Amino acid sequence: MTGVDEASWVELYRALEKPLYNVVYRWLWDRMESQDVVQEAFLRCWRARDRIRAEGFKAFVFRTALNLASNRRRRKRLWRLVSFDSLPEAPHDVGGGPSVLSLRIQRAVDELPERLKRVLMLCELAGMSYGEVAAVTGVKEGTVGSRRNRALALLRERLQPQEVMADADRS
Amino acid sequence: MQTDLESPFELLEPPPGGVERMRARLSTPEPVRTGFGLAGAGVAALAVLVALLAVVSNERNSRDADNAILAAPELDRLLGRQAQPVPLTVERDGHAVQTEQLPSSDPRVRIYRVL
């Protein structure tokens, strides 16, 4: 992408910010930190723009953002472990914590294995085709399909029992 | 700061002002990676120091070895030095025994008796 100027780069950012942000948010569960990671990914790609081909840019920036988010999440968990922090995983808003449903969703998504989670979030939140997800994750398209189905099944399984129990309590 | 989700795949709006922040960050000069630079310089300095110490140590060992060779009594005649008598040590069954030097008519021959 040699020769691309800052204005065009900002337009690329404008086009990809929302899908990238939504994917990264499912790793960090923090709005400002997620946006920071998205921008950091764009900055890294900007610095490496001479080595990136235009057709591979989207995969490159998503892969960079996912790796950054994953590393940051790992670091946060490690830090929490080392500091024996007993606070809940996600920070709360000043005006009250997240809803029970939101926390359940977060826990279910967090418990997905990384390779399944990547595929599922790229398909569902970035609206990528199996081919595009394959380019980001480096696996075959068939594997993308099977991982997505497996991830969906796991997510459904982890979210369902409590709903069933809640329904039973209501009846 | 966290957002409540109604479903795992609910699409959220990013915090406002992202484009402006991105533009500002792009305009900021790339930070120099001093961390790696300093670490690299430290490693290089350490390598030079180790190499210097190795050279000095080798030189000293070599000089000591040269001195030991030159001081060897076997070289006395070759170097025209006056031979210095070497203290005699005799061992029997792994234990040192005392000796006594006896008079000799030939200055090149020394005679000892084991006590």
Largest sheet of chain A: none
What gap, in angstroms, lies between the N and C termini of chain A?
A: 60 Å
**How would you sum up the major sheet of chain B?**
2 strands, antiparallel
Q: Work out the helicity level of chain A.
A: over 70%
Helix/strand/pairing category of chain B: alpha+beta
How does this model look, in words?
The complex is a heterodimer of chains A (171) and B (115). Chain A is mainly alpha-helical and 171 residues long. Helix content of chain A is 74%, strand content 0%. Chain A is built from seven helices and no strands. Chain A is globular, with a radius of gyration of 18 Å. Chain A starts with 5 loop residues before the first helix and ends with a helix. Chain B has 115 residues and is α+β, with helices and mostly antiparallel strands. Chain B is built from two helices and four strands; from the N terminus they run ααββββ. Chain B starts with 17 loop residues before the first helix and ends with a strand. The mean pLDDT of chain B is 81. The chains are: A mainly alpha (171), B alpha+beta (115). Chain A binds chain B through residues 6, 9-10, 13-14, 17-18, 21-22, 25-26, 29-32, 34-35, 38-39, 42-43, 46-47, 90-93, 98-99, 101-102, 105-106, 108-109, 124-125, 155, 159, and chain B through 1-9, 11-15, 18-19, 21-23, 25-27, 30.
Overview features:
heterodimer, A: 171 residues, mainly alpha, B: two-stranded antiparallel ribbon, 4 strands, 12% strand
Summarize the structure.
The complex is a heterodimer of chains A (171) and B (115). By secondary structure, chain A is mainly α.
List the SSEs and their pairings.
The complex is a heterodimer of chains A (171) and B (115).
Chain A (H helix, E strand, L loop, with lengths): L5 H23 L2 H17 L9 H26 L17 H11 L3 H12 L4 H8 L3 H30 L1
Helix pairs in contact in A: 1-2, 1-3, 1-5, 2-3, 3-6, 4-7, 5-6, 5-7, 6-7
Chain B lengths: L17 H10 L6 H37 L19 E3 L2 E3 L1 E4 L8 E4 L1
Antiparallel strand pairs in B: 1-2, 3-4
